């Protein structure tokens, strides 16, 4: 059987006219010499109507510019291009997204005719898919920008609010202090004591809000490190909280010899937040344990209470802002104390961890330290 008689070659004509691709042959001036039926039907023309027309005439305006400035020179230099996304203009003016492959050829004899073979594939679904991806990306970017703007505005609002609350609170604190020095009836003294307690509580909330805003807007915690007597600082914190919780038992074991390079006010803040948290959430009939020591070159501060077990899911997010408030909405506070303590710990190159079981809830602050600086 000769090659020309092979059954597969006899079927080539049918393949050309009934393919899922558009095929065309262009002459040296990019004019249609031949194309198959599918390509002509996609464009709303007949095969005869396309003959003699230049390929670029059937492209959108953007496609024409791209063809003249990029594709045509590329075809001359490289001899081919592939998977080029274009839009062809149909007879009714609609746009048809396609992918085009082109191969430039020349007849074997010297000076022979130059021609170009085109393969055109429909890209309607691909075009729609890419459009949906672009839309999804734009929507996500818009939402991200909105979220970032909202976050910045919220934090700026918190900072301004905290600052503006300080002045009137200062006047209230000063007024209650003056009243406390006056001759008062037992009822009035009790009321003044309640006012002082509320003012102190509000002051703590404002400081937490201000710290939160400073940490987020100011790029982190600013420390004032210096050689510090933490034995004295930690003991004072425990004494202050013991006075505020006279009915609670605090078992304290602080053993830190020498001076430690740190910000003593910030480390006192860590202990204050942890101890206040333990006194608030721990079992009222069980002691809260505070230990502080230096072990293996690390300062280790530990606060343990025997309150309600904290679920593992909450433990993992405990040091995120507002977590406590979401976990126990009935409790006072904004849920910022542990977040602030964690940020201060990180600023000292240390860590703050938590664990909770039926035997107790334990918070441990650990930082590398050089004693006796």
What key attributes describe this structure?
PAS-like_dom_sf, elongated, 373 residues, 12 strands
Describe how the helices and strands are arranged:
Elements: H1 7-10, H2 12-17, E1 22-26, E2 32-35, H3 37-42, H4 47-50, H5 61-78, E3 80-89, E4 95-106, E5 114-122, H6 124-180, H7 186-217, E6 226-228, H8 230-244, E7 250-255, E8 260-262, H9 264-281, E9 288-295, E10 298-305, H10 312-315, H11 323-327, H12 337-347, E11 351-357, E12 360-368
Parallel strand pairs: 7-9
Antiparallel strand pairs: 1-2, 1-5, 3-4, 4-5, 6-8, 9-10, 10-12, 11-12
- Shape field: elongated
Radius of gyration: 39 Å
In the sheet with the most strands, the strands line up as 2-1-5-4-3
- How far apart, in Å, are the first and last alpha carbons? 100 Å
The description of the largest β-sheet is:
5 strands, antiparallel
Give, in order, the helices and strands: HHEEHHHEEEHHEHEEHEEHHHEE
Low-confidence stretches: none
Provide the residue-averaged pLDDT.
Answer: 85
**Assembly state of the chains shown:** single chain
Count all strands and give the number. 12
Helix content percent band:
40-55%
Amount of beta strand? 15-25%
Number of helices: 12
Structural class: alpha+beta
């Amino acid at each position: 059987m000769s090659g020309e008689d092979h059954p597969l070659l006899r079927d080539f004509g049918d393949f050309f006219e009934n393919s899922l691709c558009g095929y065309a042959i262009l002459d040296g001036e990019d004019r249609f010499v031949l194309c198959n039926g599918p390509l002509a039907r996609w464009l709303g023309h007949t095969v005869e109507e396309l003959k003699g027309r230049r390929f670029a005439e059937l492209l959108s305006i953007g496609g024409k510019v791209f063809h003249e400035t990029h594709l045509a020179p590329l075809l001359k230099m490289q001899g081919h291009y592939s998977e080029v996304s274009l839009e062809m203009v149909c007879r009714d003016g609609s746009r048809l997204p396609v992918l085009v492959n082109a191969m430039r050829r020349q007849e074997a004899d010297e000076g022979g005719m130059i021609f170009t073979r085109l393969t055109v594939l429909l890209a309607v679904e691909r075009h729609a898919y890419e459009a949906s991806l672009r839309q999804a990306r734009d929507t996500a970017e818009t939402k991200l920008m909105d979220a970032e703007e909202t976050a910045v505005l919220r934090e700026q609002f918190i900072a301004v609010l905290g600052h503006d609350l300080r002045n009137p609170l200062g006047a209230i604190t000063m007024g209650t202090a003056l009243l406390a020095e006056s001759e008062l009836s037992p009822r009035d003294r009790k009321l003044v004591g309640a006012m002082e307690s509320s003012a102190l509580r509000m002051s703590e909330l404002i400081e937490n809000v201000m710290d939160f805003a400073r940490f987020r807007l100011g790029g982190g915690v600013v420390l004032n490190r210096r050689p510090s007597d933490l034995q004295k600082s930690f003991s004072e914190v425990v004494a202050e909280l013991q006075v505020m919780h006279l009915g609670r038992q605090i078992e304290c074991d602080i053993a830190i010899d020498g001076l430690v390079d740190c910000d003593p006010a910030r480390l006192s803040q860590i202990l204050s937040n942890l101890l206040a948290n333990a006194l608030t959430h721990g079992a009222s009939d069980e002691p809260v344990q505070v230990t502080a020591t230096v072990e293996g070159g690390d300062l280790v501060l530990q606060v343990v209470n025997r309150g309600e077990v904290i679920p593992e899911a909450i433990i993992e997010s405990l040091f995120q802002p507002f977590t406590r408030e979401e976990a126990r909405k009935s409790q006072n506070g904004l849920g910022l104390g542990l977040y602030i303590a964690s940020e201060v710990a990180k600023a000292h190159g240390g860590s703050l961890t938590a664990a909770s079981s039926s035997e107790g809830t334990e918070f441990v602050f650990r930082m590398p330290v050089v004693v006796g600086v």
